[in-house]
Design brief:
Blueprint (H helix, E strand, L loop, with lengths): L2 E10 L4 E6 L7 E4 L12 E8 L4 E6 L40 H8 L3 H7 L48 H9 L5 H7 L3 H17 L7 H29 L6 H10 L3 H5 L4 H32 L2 H8 L11 H14 L6 H11 L19 H9 L5 H6 L52 H4 L25
Antiparallel strand pairs: 1-2, 1-4, 2-3, 4-5
């Protein structure tokens, strides 16, 4: 069966034949008749031919004509018009019952029907007279008591979030580069504390003893770590203090306080490289604390002015520093605003939000109620019982004793539980053959250590903006 291949003409013979080889091959592969070649063929041309393979080799039958590419260009003729352009507009009819009056054709169709035929068919709807249950024109049908309409107070701009400390390790790398390489692992452990060095050394010696190798001398390693620790402490404090100096105006007060507190170390106080930074950090802490205190009072005043009572109460329970003095006048106004929100017609979730926020403020004893709801929901009763130790005047109004309750902690925000896909039903277990009682081995339950059996205590966030305290009570009005 012939197949198509590409060949290259290598030479022309006197008898009119040509030698050829496959395109890209080293040697000629055969001879073909010159009569089948196109006019103007010359040595080196590459042409496509049809060849048949047999025992003697390949025989060229003919030359395949190459396809001629014809460039087709299709054009669309644009025919202009002398008429001016008129755009298409659309106007939708207004929705409402008034538009139905324009449909006179349907009314006419309904009037043409015989009302007697409708009566014979039996109309299921019996329209009552206007004076017997049907509202008159312009009157609204009474659908029962409606919930009070609530309009949210205007939103206030939030202050930018404080930056957290991101220290470099320039000074620490410089100190570690001066320490011999065999002592660097011990120096890095010493930065984590001497207790970490003792624990790692004990574990390493236990592993060496299990392998039958000599152990490391504990006293020598601990002494080496204690000798390296002062230089590492100074280097680590310098890295943190220089990073705090760059962002002193926006740094979080928690990080700034930790730097100033760690500067009380005797090793850092005696260092000449740390004295100027210590004074600068202490002065910056005083300035930032006073600035945060003024911002704290301004935020409470602003939220109280626009009616965001719950947010103002939450801010009042998060002072920028411990022992911050709350102004008497602002406290009186805030207590009056909280009392005004605890009324008989207020919703239950509003009561819960205000009580949860007011219980952890310095003005909690000034909050009182003038009237309580006629029907107290279970959620409100539970909240009053939980906060009875902090709000005894509120608890007594609801008939709850506050003497036996301990001071509660603010509720932590909870995330909604993720909905997991339902598990497929387990296949029924095959009935096992009853074994003799004496052949069944006795399995004892593993002993549980006391440390593992104890439940992990719930972490309670400290109060204050630097500890990130948040209340789980929802501010329905804010």
């Amino acid at each position: 069966m012939p197949r198509r291949i590409e060949i290259e003409l290598t030479s022309s013979r006197p008898d009119g034949t040509w030698t050829w080889r496959a395109a890209g091959a080293r040697e000629p592969k055969g001879v073909l008749e010159g009569s089948i070649l196109p006019t103007g063929a010359k040595t080196g041309d590459v042409i496509k031919v049809e060849a048949e393979a047999d025992i003697d080799g390949m025989t060229i039958i003919g030359v395949v004509q190459a396809r001629v590419k014809v460039a087709k260009i299709e054009t669309i003729a644009l025919i202009g018009q002398d008429k001016p352009f008129e755009p298409v507009t659309q106007q939708l009819a207004k929705k409402g019952r008034g538009d139905r009056g324009d449909r006179g054709d349907r009314r006419d169709r309904g009037d043409r029907r015989d009302r007697g035929e409708r009566a014979e068919r039996g109309d299921r709807r019996e329209r009552a007279p206007r004076g017997e249950g049907r509202p008159a024109d312009g009157e609204r049908r009474d659908r029962g008591p409606r919930r009070p309409r609530f309009e949210a107070p205007p939103e206030l701009p939030q202050r930018p979030k404080a930056k957290r400390l991101r220290a470099n390790n320039t000074h620490r790398k410089a100190v570690l580069s001066e320490i011999p390489e065999n002592q660097r692992p011990i120096a890095e452990l010493a930065l984590q504390g001497m207790q970490t060095v003792r624990q790692r050394l004990k574990e390493a010696n236990a592993a060496l003893a299990a392998e039958g190798k000599p152990t490391m001398p504990e006293q020598s390693v601990l002494q080496m770590a204690e000798n390296l620790l002062p230089r590492l402490r100074v280097a680590d404090w310098l890295d943190r203090a220089e990073a705090a100096k760059r962002d002193l105006a926006q740094l979080d007060l928690r990080d700034l306080r930790s730097i100033v507190a760690s500067a009380n170390d005797a090793v850092i106080e005696r260092s000449e490289a740390c004295r100027d930074l210590i004074a600068e950090m202490k002065a910056g802490l005083v300035t930032r604390t006073e600035e945060e205190y003024q911002n704290w009072l301004a935020d409470i005043e602003a939220n109280l002015g626009v009616g965001r009572i719950v947010r103002a109460l939450k801010l009042a329970g998060q002072p920028p520093k411990a022992g911050a003095i709350f102004p008497v006048d602002l406290g009186r106004r805030l207590a009056e605003a909280a009392t005004a929100n605890l009324t008989a017609d207020a919703l239950a979730d509003r009561w819960v939000a205000v009580l949860e926020a007011a219980a952890f403020t310095p003005i909690r004893t000034q909050v009182s109620i003038t009237s309580k709801p006629e029907t107290v929901p279970a959620e409100l009763t539970k909240t009053v019982e939980r906060l009875a130790a902090l709000l005894p005047q509120i608890a007594s109004a609801f008939g709850v004793e506050a003497g036996s309750n301990h001071a509660p902690k603010p509720l932590r925000p909870t995330r909604p539980a993720k909905k997991l896909p339902p598990r497929p039903p387990a296949p029924p277990a095959a009935p096992a053959a009853a074994a003799p009682a004496e052949s069944a081995p006795e399995v004892s339950a593993p002993e549980v250590s006391p440390a593992a059996s104890e439940s992990v205590p719930e972490t309670v966030a400290e109060t204050g903006p630097e500890t990130g305290t948040e209340s789980a009570s929802t501010d329905t009005a804010d």
